[in-house]
Write a structure and sequence with these properties.
heterodimer, A: 486 residues, mainly alpha, Cytochrome C Oxidase, Chain A, B: 210 residues, Cytochrome Bc1 Complex, Chain D, domain 2, 4 strands, elongated
């Protein structure tokens, strides 16, 4: 009975046997998960640096412009690919395998597979980044790593996917929790996506505009069917877990899952509205994008109803604070995305900084924040130590939150004005450059805030690995909770 | 949802619909278009070897992150009024390009018809070397690394690019394009999609979108 309760609701207090079981799982996943987390944080720092450099180049085009490998058109894709593959995917894999093992409730087999995959993954990212900076990119967005680097990533990925499926196959019988559906799906979708895109775009390139269709089918699905399910799996696990109460509705989570799978996968073409494609392809994507209201609102209601009456926990729990901010941003960014797909609005935002703001709201405000939340929960269990400094966690949170708010705010507003001018045949092109210039400068400064947040987190992470700060009996909280009188 | 096989099949089936619709369908339908015969030969015309090299330089240096190459139809946007082209671009316009640089940003102008707007090779060299010298206020980066600054031998090379102002080379030196720069400009000058195509509809009055 307790098993069933546990999986229906990861918030119920475990009995003694499950304590032992969890300790075993954590011990055997310590090395691979920390490998993914640690390298992810290192890439996060490098990616931030490149992002800030690219952003300042928009304001000061002569900044570091004499060497070819530092030109804007290489630094920008290097930043994106490092963030997508080096940071977000790596930390997503780390969180994904840990959650999978915890929810399958068996000590994982084949740990070597994961460690090998982790090493290969990072070599692939390194090779790909060097390739971009050396001028080997084919400028296919989200797939700029050259063709000799991507097979390494694919093999690494395949190992992880296989591990995930094996794990699931040998899980302890009992209920399958919603996070597991999301993870299993992500583990199955991503290799399909990555193999299709690489085959048709990089290894055996297809002709002409087909590239655009495949490109954005891939690009959008990486967000929708790789990052989003991992982020939601984590939120679905962490929120009930920290609160110690069950998820609001099982049926809503089923609806949310299947509608996400169906509609998200059709979204890609909304990046190419007005492009050289049959009208029905674009219409299908526009409709699917608007239909995204269903999974998004479903998840939002489910999370909100779970949180209801417990929002004061956000004052104390770092995990919950990051996760809930991430989950709320998910709702906002998805609704924004649906609106941006409507042709008359798309017309205004397409080709402008507005889209860049939207992308950061998704990958940072939602995904990265959720992953920080998960790491605050998972790392102490792997290291057997509590976070050494509540003050640093607070700094991390506020720098990250204000940085991303400032970034998205300036890009959104600047992009909106830029769009108005780009669409107006009476306005000269150069005028649009002048209009967005101050917003771009603010945006570059917001990158400094985010980099500072990452630096704080990196230091905290290293101090954690070194077990600094003295042993604590209780989890590190953002502020001491006032215990309400019973 | 404990029925494993159902979950598996469902996950893969749902996803395969989009794979069929957005990958397989365009691949079969748009992946084998042939050029059209027209009065002036095949359109789009084939790229020269140099232009193909230029396509690679364009990709390597990420021009796509600031420049689009697509003209949206008039019912949807003001692209044609803005002068990015006389008609919307269609799939056949891109069959010579590998990959096509449709782009998602317009930090700089659309380049679908840059050869129509700026047919002058020298202008492009000057612009790439130092955009600000020909377009004050530009934020396009300088692509100086695609050029050589070399001492003038007996007389200036015939390809030497005239650069004036603060970015001029020191006295006794000249700026000459490397092969990469030559290729890139050859590629830019191949960007000209103003020929009529049946599926693109009638272009509006002949002088629109110059």
């Amino acid at each position: 009975m307790s098993d069933l309760l546990q999986s229906l609701n990861p918030g119920t207090p475990p009995d003694a046997r499950s304590y032992v079981e969890r300790a075993e799982i954590d011990a055997s996943l310590r090395a691979p998960v920390l490998l993914f987390f640690g390298t992810g944080v290192a890439w996060l720092l490098l990616g931030s640096l490149l992002g800030v450099l690219a952003a300042f180049k928009m304001s000061f085009p002569h900044l570091l412009d004499s060497a070819d490998w530092l030109t804007f058109g290489r630094v920008r894709p290097a930043h994106l690919n490092i963030m997508v593959y080096g940071w977000a995917s790596a930390v997503g894999i780390g969180v994904g395998i840990w959650l999978m093992a915890r929810l399958c409730r068996v000590a994982p087999r084949h740990r070597g597979l994961l460690i090998g995959a982790g090493i290969a993954w990072n070599l692939g990212v390194l090779a790909g980044t060097i390739g971009i900076l050396a001028g080997q990119s084919r400028s296919i967005e989200w797939l700029e790593f050259p063709g000799w680097a991507t097979p390494i990533l694919f093999v690494a990925y395949a190992l992880i996917g296989v591990w995930g499926v094996i794990m699931f196959r040998f899980r302890r019988p009992g209920h399958v929790y919603v996070s597991q559906w999301y993870l299993l799906a992500a583990f199955l979708w991503f290799p399909w996506l990555y193999a299709t895109a690489n085959t048709l775009l990089i290894w055996q390139p297809v002709q002409g505009s087909v590239v655009g269709a495949v490109n954005w089918w891939y690009g959008h699905n990486v967000l929708g069917l790789w990052f989003t399910p991992i982020g939601l799996a984590s939120a679905y696990y962490m929120i009930p877990k920290v609160l110690g109460r069950p998820i609001h509705s099982y049926y809503l989570s089923i609806l949310g899952f299947w509608s996400l799978a169906l509609f998200y996968s059709w979204n890609g073409m909304h990046h190419l509205i007005g492009g050289p494609f049959p009208a029905w392809m674009i219409s299908a994507s526009v409709v699917a994008s608007v239909m995204m209201f269903i999974p998004v609102i479903t998840v939002a209601i489910n999370h909100h109803a779970t949180m209801r009456g417990h929002f004061h926990y956000l004052k104390w729990s770092p995990t919950l604070r990051f996760t809930v901010v991430g989950a709320m941003t998910y709702t906002i960014v998805s609704l924004q995305g649906s609106l941006m797909a409507i042709p008359s609005l798309n017309n205004l935002t397409h080709f402008t900084d507005y889209t860049i703001g939207h992308a950061h709201l998704g990958l940072y405000g939602f995904f990265t924040m959720t992953m920080f939340g998960a790491m605050y929960y998972i790392v102490p269990r792997l290291v057997g130590w509590e976070w050494p400094s509540a003050a640093m966690i607070r700094w991390h949170f506020w720098l990250a939150a204000s940085g991303v708010a400032l970034m998205v705010g300036s890009l959104t507003l600047g992009g909106f004005l830029q769009g108005l001018e780009l669409n107006d045949p009476q306005v000269a092109f150069l005028t649009s450059l002048k209009t967005v210039a101050p917003f771009r400068f603010v945006r570059a400064c917001s990158g400094i805030l985010l980099s500072a947040a990452h630096l704080v987190f990196a230091v905290l992470f290293i101090r954690m690995l070194l077990r600094q700060g003295g042993p604590r009996a209780e989890a590190t909280l953002l502020s001491p909770p006032e215990i309400p009188a019973v | 949802m404990n029925k494993l096989p159902l979950l598996f099949v469902g996950i893969l089936l749902v996803f395969s619909t989009s794979w069929i619709g957005l990958v397989a369908y365009p691949y079969l339908k748009l992946g084998r278009l042939a050029p059209e015969a027209s009065r002036d030969g095949l359109v789009p015309p084939p790229l020269t070897a140099s232009a193909i090299g230029g396509e690679r330089v364009y990709a390597a240096n990420g021009c796509i992150y600031c420049h689009s190459q697509q003209v949206r139809p008039a019912w949807l946007s003001t692209d044609i009024e803005k002068g990015w082209g006389p008609r919307q671009t269609v799939a056949r316009d891109y069959i010579r390009e590998s990959p096509p640089f449709l782009g998602t940003m317009r930090t700089g102008p659309d380049l679908t018809n840059i050869d129509v707007r700026r047919p002058d090779r020298v202008w492009h060299y000057q612009h790439l070397y130092e955009p600000g010298t020909v377009t004050p206020g530009s934020i396009m980066p300088s692509f100086r690394f695609l050029f050589k600054v070399q001492p003038i031998k007996d007389r200036p090379s015939f390809e030497a690019v005239a650069v004036h102002g603060p970015h001029a080379p020191p006295r006794g030196y000249e700026v000459v394009p490397t092969q990469d720069a030559r290729d890139l400009v050859a590629y830019l000058l191949s960007l000209k999609h103003n020929y009529p195509l049946p599926e693109a509809g009638d272009p509006p009055a002949a002088d629109a979108g110059k």
